[in-house]
Amino acid sequence: MELGITSFAETIPDPTSGKAIGHGERLRQVLEEIDLAESVGLDVFGLGEHHRPDFASSSPATVLAAAAGRTEKIRLFPAVSILSTDDPVRVFQQYATLDLVSSGRAELLVGRGSFIESFPLFGLSLDDYNELFAEKLDLLLQIRDNEHVTWSGQFRPPIDQGIYPRPERPLPIRVAVGGTPQSIVRAAERGLPVALAIIGGTPDRFLMLADLHRRTLIESGFDPAQVPLSVHGHGYIADTTEQAAEEYYPSYAAAMSRIGRERGWDPMTLQQYNLMREPEGSLVLGDPETVATKILRWKEILGVTRFELHVSVGTLPHAQVLRSIELLGTKVAALVNG
After folding, report:
1. Which of 296, 208, 199 is nearest to 1 (CA)?
2. Residues near 55 by Cβ (< 8 Å), separated by ≥ 6?
């Protein structure tokens, strides 16, 4: 089973001091995290795209290109590229370029995004939320499969020319899904792998989506064994489960409560947090043995072949983030794949 890390390069104010780290310092920390992830043998690292003050990475391709020059093996991808509000031509060109400079280590994870700031920023309407993504996904796949593209649609001027540079192998493309069956079906009908984002509730409820993905793949003429599922979850690893729970709660609760205020959610409570830590919960948190057990449970239930741990949702001390990455690569990986 492949294991990796995802980050949003968060700069949410520290819940104790109220201070926020600068964007430049946070991005340099992300590069250190990628270096460490490679050194401890992790397979992948994903960096999110956001357009708001509490996340530092609006251009993940740029940061990942910097990481490519410092690493040799780890595969790099956006988590996610907000395809709905970007130009599929530019998205393809950026990640084809990353693939070339990294000697074939780029992947592309696309989605509609978990925030909406990019829509007004780039002059697009939320009324077209679904239609934008569907049209742009189809154009992206045409570009992936054809050097010369002849295309016309609703949201972009027509194209009748070559798209460059071309990667030296087909660029791997996955679709991020938060829980909607329509998104699962859309990806499966196009033969695309899916990354399930499990950030709340009971992971068992995603079994229906995993089964729907496999069933739709078969109905669409694809072999599910060749179109893997992956899963992304919030969590944290420390030397003991008690330490992990104590260290992670302040920043995680502050971040989720902050985001929740924007969406009409109640603030996160310690009781809710502890429920999420339970074996059936969505937080992948604890000592290496506890974390490995939960990852293996998700693998058994959902049939996933990759797990991506999103360590820092709020602003954790950088040393703690690095220790969590270290434990994932040196301890958890051996338990999961031993």
Report:
1. 296
2. 8, 9, 10, 11, 48
Q: Residue 15: pLDDT above 90?
A: no
Yes or no: say if 158 and 152 are a contact pair by the CB < 8 Å rule: yes
pLDDT at res. 6: 98
Tell me the three state secondary structure of residue 77.
strand
Q: For residues 251 and 292, what is the distance between their CA atoms, to the nearest angstrom? A: 23
DSSP E strands in the chain: the ranges are 2-7, 44-47, 75-78, 81-82, 108-111, 148-151, 159-162, 173-177, 194-198, 229-237, 284-286, 306-310
Residue ranges of E strands in 204-335? 229-237, 284-286, 306-310
Q: What is the DSSP letter of 332?
A: I
CA–CA distances in Å: residue 128 to residues 65, 91, 151, 181, 331: 31, 20, 20, 19, 45
Burial annotation 42-77 (CB, 10 A radius, 16+ → b, else e): bbbbbbbbbbeebbbbbebbebbbebbeebeebbbb
pLDDT one-digit tens code per residue, 194-213: 999 998 888 888 999 999 99
Asked if residue 56 lies in contact with residue 26, where contact means CB atoms within 8 angstroms, the answer is yes
What is the architecture of the domain spanning 2-337?
Answer: Alpha-Beta Barrel (3.20)
User: Distance (Å, rounded) from C-alpha 316 to C-alpha 169?
Assistant: 38
Contacts of residue 135, Cβ cutoff 8 Å, sequence gap at least 6: 153, 154, 155, 156
Distances (CA, A) of 132 to 82, 110, 122, 192, 228: 11, 13, 13, 18, 25
User: How would you classify the pairing of strands 2-7 and 284-286?
Assistant: unpaired
Greatest CA separation for the chain: 59
Domain boundaries in the chain? Answer: 2-337
pLDDT over threshold 90, residue 114: no
Sequence-separated (6 or more) residues with CB below 8 Å from residue 293: 279
Query: The whole model's pTM is what?
Result: 0.97
β-bridge mates for residue 44, sequence order: 4, 75
Of the candidates 179, 176, 227, the one whose C-alpha atom is nearest the C-alpha of residue 206 is 179
